Amino acid sequence: MNSSNNVLELINVSKSFEHPVLKNISFNIRRKEFISIVGQSGVGKSTLFDIICNLTSYQGTVVSTEKIGYVNQKDLLLPWMTIEENITFFQKLAPDSFPITEPILKIFNLKNLLKKYPSQLSGGEKQRANLYRNYISNKTLWLLDEPFASLDFLTKEKMYNWLKEITKILNVTVLFITHDLNEAIFLSDKIFIFKGNPAQIEKIFIKPFNFPEIKRILIKNNY
Predict the structure, then answer these.
(1) Do the Cβ atoms of 192 and 204 come closer than 8 Å?
(2) Could you give the dihedral angle defined by the CA atoms of residues 166, 170, 174 and 177, in that order, rounded to the nearest 10 degrees?
(3) Edge-to-edge, what's the strand order for the sheet holding 190-196?
(4) Quick one: pLDDT at residue 156?
(5) Contacts of 109 (CB under 8 A, 6+ apart)
(6) Which of 10, 150, 181, 182 has the lowest tally of Cβ within 10 angstroms?
(7) Is pLDDT of 211 > 60?
């Protein structure tokens, strides 16, 4: 990597299934940055996450200095286990995991939920538990694939503020997929606009954002 402060670097990353999906994707992410990826459905955003996690073959180079945690719309909590059992189960899978402590449970608003089962939790509570599993497993680079898409508007608003706060407290780096431009603008330090087939990065916006230009590009791409 070009800088010791970079935690993820992609160089000319491409991917094809029957047809090309991604073409020559290159970018760096610095420690503690919050990056959002915005683009049409099917443009290859989730495929990019699979590549970064080494879940699929690809062409190009991916280098990460951090342990990666992947969270999507589904919470993936084991339904027959309590929240505490879910957390300790995944904790055992990571030999360098952190201990469960009351201050961190408080940050994740989970202290009073440990004895409950996933079916007894709201969507926002499930995602907080899912993100806590990331943290306790010592995952410091979080790939979040539309984690709030299934939540109602008021719950989303609360989760935005909460996520923005905890990522700063815990010093984690986030790569975030969203279809919601307002979500991206509120949460992010940078926004990557993906377009095309195969997809490429059309534009990178850096905070403070030029909202009219972002909107113009999305309208031009029929987004």
Answers:
(1) yes
(2) -30
(3) 59-64, 6-16, 20-30, 199-206, 190-196, 34-38, 173-178, 141-145, 68-71
(4) 87
(5) 125, 128, 162
(6) 182
(7) yes
Cα 22 to Cα 141: distance, rounded to the nearest angstrom: 22
Closest CA to 175 of 186, 162, 189: 189
Query: CB of 139 within 8 A of CB of 68?
Result: yes
